[in-house]
Task: inverse folding
């Protein structure tokens, strides 16, 4: 017999990924299977195409893969890096991007900044002047530190150099704050389903520029599963490359319709910005510091420094007892910071409730948490 744990109510799960999935989206996953080469499947992908284009702000095809987001990180590297990439490293996920470059057998030059800091476009320009590379990897919203980087600025800088592609992990920014692959001129932009899109984990979405496609066609070692060239060919014919996680595709369809009904992606951005501002106002009132500086804070994940004497483990545990989930810090910041993942379908109202519970937990005397 399986052990069943009582399900917590929707709207209290503020982990910075996976995030809460709306019951209507979960319900869509109960639909029966269909053949992935059937006309029904083709119809679903045809219906999804313009909606995904609107969500990802692109006129290019949006490729959808059955993989966690790291798979598309690998897709970015195998199809976008010729010999040598510059990896901007400011946290755990950007570090992973650098490791993927290395694991794919390419040379990786790192531009490191301390945890909580962002790289500014001028720093990127200096690094590119010093080090000729053919691609740059960057994480837009670094989920481990809550830093939002100036990807638009990075794109302007990379264009000053000849034949340098910009590969962007937008896993916790896309669908939560402005990401403009076409307008900014990003060469590959990807996200995963379980973050700002508020779907269960298991799907990744990607957008490649024409330059990226040209580059990909010239590269050997693209592999098979993450070959962007065959992905794009299949996508243009409304076909999946392999058997997709059908239940997740149903969920994606349901979620795209919900996003459209709510007023589209811009409405979604506004709600996320309001959530970021809500945490900022709350923290300022209590003298609690953010790890990132003002203007470089993610709209989907807030990373807060805990007052001296408080441990993340205790604070997260105290919230858990009351039915609320947040994240502790990541890596070296594990016990000194907490992370609130206010992304996906969360609301300002629920976030305010969470912050009231958090304020009470922090107000308890030391050792009583
Ligand atoms: C969660 C996350 C990833 C990795 O996603 P997986 O789906 O676990 O592979 C990559 N980058 C960022 C910024 C993330 O937040």
Result:
């Amino acid at each position: 017999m399986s052990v069943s744990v009582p399900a917590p109510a929707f709207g209290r799960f503020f982990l910075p990924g996976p995030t809460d999935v709306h019951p209507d989206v979960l319900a869509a996953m109960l639909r029966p299977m269909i053949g992935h080469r059937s006309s029904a499947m083709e119809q679903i992908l045809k219906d999804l195409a313009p909606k995904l284009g609107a969500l990802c702000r692109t006129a290019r095809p949006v490729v959808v893969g059955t993989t966690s987001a790291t798979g598309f990180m690998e897709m970015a590297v195998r199809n976008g890096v010729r010999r040598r990439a510059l990896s901007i490293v400011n946290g755990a996920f950007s570090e992973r991007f650098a490791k993927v470059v290395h694991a794919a057998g390419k040379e990786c030059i790192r531009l490191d900044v301390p945890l909580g800091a962002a790289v500014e476009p001028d720093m990127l320009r200096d690094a590119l002047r010093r080090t000729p590379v053919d691609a740059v990897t960057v994480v837009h919203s670094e989920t481990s530190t809550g830093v939002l980087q100036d990807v638009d600025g990075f794109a302007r800088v990379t264009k000053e150099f000849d034949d340098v592609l910009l590969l962007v992990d937008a896993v916790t920014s896309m669908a939560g704050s402005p990401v403009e692959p076409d307008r900014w001129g990003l060469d590959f932009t990807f996200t995963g389903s379980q973050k700002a899109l508020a779907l269960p984990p298991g799907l990744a979405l990607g957008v490649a520029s024409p330059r990226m496609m040209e580059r990909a066609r010239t590269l050997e070692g693209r592999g098979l599963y993450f070959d962007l060239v065959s992905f794009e060919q299949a996508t243009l014919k409304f076909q999946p490359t392999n058997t997709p996680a059908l239940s997740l595709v149903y969920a994606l369809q349901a979620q795209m319709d919900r996003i459209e009904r709510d007023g589209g992606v811009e409405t979604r951005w506004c709600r996320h910005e309001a959530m970021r501002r809500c945490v900022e106002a709350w923290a300022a009132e209590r003298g609690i510091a953010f790890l990132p500086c003002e203007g470089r804070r993610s709209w989907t994940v807030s990373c807060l420094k805990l007052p001296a004497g408080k441990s993340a483990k205790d604070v997260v545990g105290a919230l858990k007892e009351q039915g609320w989930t947040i994240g502790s810090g990541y890596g070296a910041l594990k016990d000194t910071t907490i992370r609130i993942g206010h992304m996906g379908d969360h609301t300002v109202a629920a976030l305010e409730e969470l912050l009231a519970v958090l304020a009470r937990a922090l107000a308890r005397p030391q050792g009583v948490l």
Notes: The mean pLDDT is 96. The chain has two domains: 24-261, 265-363. The CA atoms of residues 89 and 112 lie 5 Å apart. The pocket of pyridoxal-5'-phosphate is lined by residues 17, 68-70, 93, 139, 143, 169, 171-172, 192, 195, 201 (CB under 6 Å).
